[in-house]
Amino acid sequence: MSEQTILVTGGTGTTGSRIAARLRARGVHARVASRSSACRLDWAEPGTWAPALAGARAVYLAYAPDLAVPSSDEVMAAVTRAATAAGVRRVVLLSGRGEPGAQRAEAAVRRAAEEGGLDWTVLRCSWFVQNFTEGQFAGPLATGELALPVEDVPEPFLDAEDIADVAVAALLDDGHAGRTHELTGPRALTFAEAVAEIAAVTGRPAHFRPVPFEAYAAELAAAGVPDDVMGLMTHLFTEVLDGRNAAPTDGVQQALGRPATDLADAVRRSALAGSRA
Ligand SMILES: NC(=O)c1ccc[n+]([C@@H]2O[C@H](COP(=O)([O-])OP(=O)(O)OC[C@H]3O[C@@H](n4cnc5c(N)ncnc54)[C@H](OP(=O)(O)O)[C@@H]3O)[C@@H](O)[C@H]2O)c1
User: Fold this and answer.
1) In ligand 1, which atom is closest to the CA atom of 15?
2) For residue 234, is it within any domain?
3) pLDDT per residue over 44-83, tens digit each?
């Protein structure tokens, strides 16, 4: 693809910022959009979508806070229709593995894209390694203890750099249209194992402590966490993290022709980047 604009929603977030950086490195114009970006886009304000979409050839869709939010499927279908109207040719949706709400949103995007004649690709992802290194669990880990309401459930933690590589391939290259890439890391680890590996790689002692869900919820409530976020955490810890996503896939290999990045390597690279910053 030559001269083109790619709209990267959630472009200041974990995956979007990495995707925008890769697009720019390839000489592609990445238009970063979010509530705080120069190109303002708010999922709750449909009036902000058309200006962000204008002139874009492809769109990366990263809904926030989560596709588990009721009616996210309607929002994703509506933005896909708006993309069609704006002349967009391709949509790439970031989705979550084993989540009924996310799968409803995937179906809504597929349907709307097919009706509009757009290429679609779904990236159905497991838990990001970056939840530990830069997301909401990085702070507790830095104090030496991460306490969450999950026991010995293995999860094949996925490196967001791999997601960005697959997203860029799906946005720019041929061969990804009409495909759902189920992306995971190469090894399933329990949270205790993941935290132990992170501590070993970074040299910063940390351990994992499983806690009852009620105690965790009470702690969040005391910290003033809003009801909608509480609802998402309840969904995540009482439903999604039941072992349904434990089996690793070869989705990264299938999409890119190279293996997925191991959690230890992802953490090592992020620790090195942090020490250079
Ligand atoms: N973390 C995981 O383990 C995991 C696993 C599978 C799937 N996912 C999915 O990943 C998605 C989040 O993507 P991410 O992790 O790359 O981003 P992120 O780091 O969670 O950041 C959220 C991004 O969305 C923007 N945003 C927040 N609220 C918005 C709104 N109302 N309208 C428009 N933009 C908004 C934020 O920027 P502003 O604040 O400037 O608006 C930011 O750019 C969610 O759909 C989640 O379900 C996450």
Assistant:
1) 16
2) no
3) 999 999 999 999 999 999 999 999 999 999 999 999 999 9
Domain of residue 10: give its range. Answer: 5-126+160-184+247-260
Residue 220 lies in a domain: no
Tell me the CA–centroid distance for residue 67 and ligand 1, in Å: 10
CA of 244 to the centre of ligand 1 (A): 23
The residue to mutate among 37, 41, 49, 63, having the most atoms of ligand 1 within 8 angstroms of its beta carbon, is 63
Q: What total number of domains does the chain contain?
A: 1
Measure the CA–CA gap between 152 and 161, rounded to whole angstroms: 26
Query: What does pLDDT average to over the chain?
Result: 95
Can you give the pTM of this predicted structure? 0.97
Tell me how far CA of residue 216 lies from CA of 68, 148, 191, 220, in angstroms: 20, 7, 15, 6
> Is the distance from CB of 63 to CB of 104 less than 8 angstroms?
no
- Out of 15, 22, 34, 76, give the residue to mutate to test ligand 1, the one with the largest number of ligand atoms within 8 Å of its CB: 34
CATH number for position 66: 3.40.50.720
In a domain, 255, yes or no: yes
* Cβ-proximal residues to 187 (8 Å cutoff; 6+ apart), any chain: 156, 248, 262, 263
The DSSP result for 4-38, as a single string, is -EEEEETTTSHHHHHHHHHHHHTT-EEEEEETTSS
> Sign of dihedral through CA atoms 32, 34, 39, 44?
positive
How many Å apart are CA 12 and CA 196, to the nearest integer?
Answer: 29
CA of 241 to the centre of ligand 1 (A): 19
